[in-house]
Design a protein that fits this description.
heterotrimer; A mainly beta (about 170); B alpha/beta (about 120); C alpha+beta (about 650); A: mainly beta; OB fold (Dihydrolipoamide Acetyltransferase, E2P); 6-stranded mixed sheet; 5-stranded mixed sheet; 3 helices; about 10% helix; about 40% strand; globular; C: about 650 residues; alpha+beta; Four Helix Bundle (Hemerythrin (Met), subunit A); Alpha-Beta Plaits; Helix Hairpins; about 40% helix; flat
Amino acid sequence: MTEGSLVSARLLVFRVGTLACAADVDQVREILPRLPTTRIPGAPPVVAGLVNVRGTLVTVVEGWRALGLPPPSPLPSPESGPAGSTIILELGKGEDAGNEGGGTSKKLIGFTVDEVMDMLAGGETRLEDRKGLPGVDPTLVRAVGRRNGELFIVLDVAALLGPILPS
Amino acid sequence: MSHTVLVCDDAIFMRTMITDILAQAGFEVVGEAETGTQAVEKYRQLKPDLVTMDIVMPDMGGIDAVREIVKQDPDAKILMCSAMGQQALVVEAIQAGAKDFVVKPFQPSRVLEAVQRVLG
Amino acid sequence: MDLSQYAELFLAESREHLSACNQLLLEWERNPASPEPVGGLFRAVHTIKGMAATMGYGRVADLSHRMENLLDHLRRSGRAPADEIIQMLFRATDALEKAVGLAVAGREREADLAVLAEIDRAALQAKPAPQPSGLARHFKESEPPGSPESPSLPAAPAASSGSTRLIEIVIRPEAPLKGGRAMLVVRKLQTLGTVHRVQPAAAAFESDDFDGRFVCELETARPAADIEAAVRSVGDVEGVTFGGGTDESQVSPAESAGGGRTRHIRVDLRRLDTLMDLIGELVTERGRLNDVAARWVGQDPEIDEVAIQISRLSADLQNEIILARMTPVWQVFDRFPRLVRDVARQLDKQVSFRVEGKEIELDREILDALGDPLVHLLRNAVDHGIEPPAERKRHKKDPEGEIVLAAVRERSSVAISISDDGRGIDRTKILEKAKREGVVGPHVESLSDDQLLRVLARPGFTTAESVTSVSGRGVGIDVAMTRIRALGGSIEIRTEPGKGTAFVLRLPVTLAIVRALIAAVGQERYALPLTYVAETVEFGTVPLTTMEGRDAIVLRDRVVPLVDLRKLLGTNGGAPAPPPRRPVIVLEMGERRAGIVVDGMLSQQEIVVKGFDAPQGTLPVFSGATIMGDGVPALILDSAGLV
């Protein structure tokens, strides 16, 4: 992914814990409230479980765990219902599946966030080619941007979530 | 009112293509047959305005089917579907009472011309 | 006209015909004097030719045309062909199959047509001496065609009513089958009067050399203009010249046909899949409706009635669609006789191959996935099961071995067995090897069928000279086993030294919707398809024991090892303590059994099986997931993974 294509992209900005993050809108299928999840035995702790998105089963990843952030406090209690949102992301988009078998190379994966904040159009922000912020794994960061004076990181969704689902 | 057609060919592929060509031109394909015997039977049941008939079919071939159908109905309008190299068979089919023929590979325009000729 | 939309249909149908070709060649090979196979072969190849020409696949059309030509000669000669001709036809069929595949993939140019030369050579040899054709037998020289024996000749406006004219007709040079066109002209002229003579004789029309130019002598009262119009109405007429009458080409208006029509339509398989998905959704929603109805039935009993009605309707709908997906096994099995023959020939073995239960039906998706595993197992049976003829003779066996592929419908599954009457698997050798590789403990003295299969199916369990008798057995088996397991099925093996080996595959009849038990484990729910559920018992009401260090129960004198789902799935945090009398679900797959200990049984219901992308590390005991009535997913346990 080149810097040029990045700058022209529209970004969805959201908050996980205290960290402001963004993802390329083209990779976002939809934004849903937090859904009841079903635990998948054996899966790593970063996987919150399986959810039903209108009949399709989607694995959901716990945002704060994936980013290596401290757990939110207080932990959402089962009674009050989980707060925040689930962003449904599309992985492997743009890869040419070819004609053979028509197999879909696209995978859906959910990512939990505390709050969806904004949608930024291409020209609205300047992105810097910085490898992240202190305390965030630089391999997960594609660039750093600024919104209302606040820094946010543009996540490399494939690097972050790709390894969780086997190809 | 649209003309009714019985399509006889042992290949679904051919039946599909002929049906598509005719349906697009406003004909109503009322039946399909895979063998000569079926063709004769369905002709009796359906009394279609037009029959398209493949020459080579299992069980009873197209030419024998033409003979049987014409025996039932001397006015039957049968269009043979032939392939290159089947000159003798086509001549025999016409002799048996087929009204016209088209040659594979089909061009829709030629098929429709032949159909018009047969239906007058 | 956009032809690409027909490509799939072309491929599917060509494959059917190619499969028929292989069957017919096998039959012909067994019985070269039989006249039936060649007729069927001719038709199949002819059909492929016509379809390929229509699709514009020149090479496929050419290859099939030349095969057709050869077959036509063979058919006419009426003699039994030499074996090498049949072998060559097998090769030609293979080449045609490849060419068909390449053509559809847009790579027709890569098709290998080396076999063409052989076909043409054989055709030349097989060409029968020229003899009067069918038409020549019908007419004598110069006799007007359409003679009295022809039934459809309403000898029209009678003769003697006018003058006799000579008419020269030229058919367009580019017109195909000019002789056919000429014959139509003659027939047309016969509606106007009496045709006394045709020059050249009508018999010439059936020759490919006919140039489209001919003269008719017509006795008619009609004016020249009418005759010319009638002749031109036949189409593809370039010129009409006279040396003589009119007729509206009178065609009776068609009467519309009456009822009694049965109609078939073709349905794209993907449509069927989508329909199945939608019905799956409907079944899920029906579950929700039932939940709601159960809560409201006190207020308004009508809601219950509606819910029941909807349940009934959606069940009917579901059954219909499941039936629409069912496909008889012959659609896959029919290519195996050829496969077995080829492998047997390669290995110089004599094998008779029998297929039973061809009409048994399975879900199309299961059947499609079954092809490869069966190929593996059949190859193994020929290669490693059946002994060479000399060895069989030494053991006083028929030099010709037998392999039987049989499908049998069982309670809610289909069993497919591949059995051979070969040498069987040498357990002692396998055991030695398994010990050496540490697959089994050093103190194990014999392998049960079950243990044997586990050893053979280990991906790493390769073969060495010491196990020649089964060399390679393991290679296909791990692949086959994985596939079958992924379909929710199981494999079993039975083998006896000197007597033979049988593999039995058990498969669910349909994949998409299954009846399942919904079990509670802690606060979680899991679905367990009923396909392999034998019974349920209560923990504490049956005697306990241990088996190979595992807890087990004794059920009617059989020891059934237990699997505690709580432990297996790591269900702990926050879950209440297990109830004292936990249910045990007994699974049975062939000879193998296991008791699955759960916390409670919630319901028995139909579930829609869906796939999910399992994250890294997911325990290998799930075959999919389903969506429960409340909209929350539940994982489906894979019986084969538990037993």
